[in-house]
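tool_log.txt
---
The assistant was asked to compare two proteins side by side. It first ran the structure predictor on the initial sequence, then on the second. Raw inputs and outputs are pasted verbatim so the downstream comparison step can read them without reformatting.
(1)
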Amino acid sequence: MRKRVTALKAATTGGIVAFTIALLSIVVGRINGWRQSLDLQSSFVRGGKHIMEVDGVLTAYGWLMLAQTTAVFVTLGVIVAMFVWYTIGEPDPN
């Protein structure tokens, strides 16, 4: 590494990368849900005990589950970034 990377910078970068990936996934999923909601020929309900989605539109519970999985994904991104930072280590001062 050419520049010194602090633990905070590594964690922030990992979180931003994971959040960007999650955001792209959410956008694609909601576009697909919107397209599905326009199809009047079929009806679709997703979920088990708690209904998460009806005809491509998320319910309040569906949004809650989406937020929870996004938070877990971003947290894992931060953990992976910290592991990489710890494994690579600080650059040599020479």
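(2)
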Amino acid sequence: MGWVGNVFLIIGLWLIGYRDRKAFVFSVIGELIWVFYSIQREMYDLAFICVIFGVLAMRNWYLWGKK
């Protein structure tokens, strides 16, 4: 399941290079997958970091929409 999250994260990073706002949506989806995966595996430190990165991606999606 983790590799599916990585696919979304890689797509998000790729689209950021093209300055595409929807890149952050892919990043949030990838982080959510990692949060669920890490909670299932009881890796709460990883889940915490993924939540932080997901919140940052949502923030950036919002800020890029203001332009």
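---
observation on (2): Residues 44-65 form the longest helix (22 residues). The chain has a mean pLDDT of 95.
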